[in-house]
Amino acid sequence: MADEVISKLKKQMQKSSDNLKVELGKIRAGRANASLVNDIMVDYYGAPTPLQQIASVSIPEARLIQITPFDKTALKSIETAINMSDLGINPTIDGNVIRLVVPQLTGESRKDIVKEVKKTAEEAKIAIRNARRDAMDTLKKSEKDGEISEDIMHKKEKDVQKIHDEFIKIIDDISSNKEKEISKI
Known about the structure:
Elements: H1 2-25, E1 41-44, E2 47-50, H2 51-54, E3 55-61, E4 64-69, H3 75-84, E5 91-94, E6 97-101, H4 107-144, H5 150-183
Antiparallel strand pairs: 1-2, 3-4, 4-6, 5-6
């Protein structure tokens, strides 16, 4: 029982840290990153289709995203989808490819983005703390119901806290790396 609680806790915390990586990958840091276009849905023959399914995305330069559709007739649809997204970058059609030039960040926009990174990291920490609280409550309930002994409960509570501390450090490392990437000129 107690080992199941620990296993479930690790999965929840890993999911939170993975989700943070995905969310921070979507944040524009003045450099080209293929994850910036991951959420773009293109109206392809009347069906909303993820961009990656109808085009290849490459990064030929530090501030350039190049999108090459597998079907050349999809160029206009891709351009429209990019314009309608909240990406904030104007696409340029160049022959059979679409180029997105990621603009250089200003000092003010860097500060705003760093605030957004910190907010997103704090949300991940809250999810981890909630997972810890739920695990602790489950252990206390199991001890109260006589399913585990008091000694095992105290040992598992220490394990829960140790896992919590490890994942909080992981969250801090992920967010500080993203902040450094944003602050780098």
